[in-house]
Amino acid sequence: MPTTVLVAGFRGSMGQKATAMIKRDPELELAAVYSPHLETTDPAAYDLPATTQVFNQLSAMDTPAQVWVDFSTPAGAFENAQFALEHGMTPIIGTSGLSDDQVAQLTKLAKEQHQAGLLVPNFGLSAVLLMQFAKQAAQYFPDAEIIEMHHADKKDSPSGTAVNTAKMIAAGRKQAPETVENPVETIPGARGANYEDVPIHAVRLPGYVAHEQVLFGGPGEALTIRQDSFDRESFMHGLNIAIKQVNRLKGFAVGLENVL
């Protein structure tokens, strides 16, 4: 039997790619879609199979979906994930912007519900490898900065990928980075956001999709690790793996590497 999937935020760029991928895969079934801003719940209006349920209210939802894929908004993703866990669905959250406290709450709820769940900062396999390589490099180069570049429509910054990369750099360090005493920013924010002593610089420009550079500096040398996602289709391989493997998890996890 195919795995049944609900996609929240199905009309966005990532949501459209996700629904197309699910419809192509005979091992998956697009059981339902959800967006709170729909005027009609007729699947034909969205070029969806007649068997796909369409919802615009959580309170009206009654679906056989086993996995909840979320590409909605930072404001809605947390509530959606709570609903999924409380109603027997396994959430896979591709929306960035959740706080550490919200992740902790979802982790606690998943444990209480004996459910699995996954927050994925980036579904691109190249991005997963970048984060792993950055963690290894931080053992030898504790001084690092991140430049993340995304399309102009991305609302939140820094990206979830950049924040997760900073966490992994901090976890990989064996010594503290050098600090500049009494730094002066002639324009506030010039040194970027600081997360775990890793400056993060966010770029939002048309023409970009999702890109990240991690710059490491040491005495007389430097190392740069970079990944580029030129098309959102590149994220679908990782999403497909996550949907099929997520229930092997015990509890709630962060990062695609947990199901690879």
TrEMBL record:
Instruction: Report the locations given in the UniProt record.
Output: Cytoplasm
Q: Which residues bind (S)-2,3,4,5-tetrahydrodipicolinate?
A: H151, G160, T161
Q: How does it assemble?
A: Homotetramer.
At the top of the EC hierarchy, this enzyme's class is oxidoreductase
Q: Which residues form the Dihydrodipicolinate reductase N-terminal domain?
A: 4-123
Catalytic activity reads: (S)-2,3,4,5-tetrahydrodipicolinate + NAD(+) + H2O = (2S,4S)-4-hydroxy-2,3,4,5-tetrahydrodipicolinate + NADH + H(+); (S)-2,3,4,5-tetrahydrodipicolinate + NADP(+) + H2O = (2S,4S)-4-hydroxy-2,3,4,5-tetrahydrodipicolinate + NADPH + H(+)
Molecular functions (GO terms) = 4-hydroxy-tetrahydrodipicolinate reductase
* Originating gene: dapB
Q: Which family does it belong to?
A: Belongs to the DapB family.
Keywords from UniProt, A to Z, are: Amino-acid biosynthesis, Cytoplasm, Diaminopimelate biosynthesis, Lysine biosynthesis, NAD, NADP, Oxidoreductase
> Which PROSITE patterns does this one have?
DAPB
Name of this chain's protein: 4-hydroxy-tetrahydrodipicolinate reductase
Q: Kindly identify the residues recorded as the active site.
A: H150, K154
The source organism is Fructilactobacillus carniphilus
Listed binding positions for NAD(+) are G9, F10, R11, G12, S13, M14, E39, G94, T95, S96, V120, P121, N122, F123
Q: In which pathway does it act?
A: Amino-acid biosynthesis; L-lysine biosynthesis via DAP pathway; (S)-tetrahydrodipicolinate from L-aspartate: step 4/4
Q: EC number(s) on record?
A: 1.17.1.8
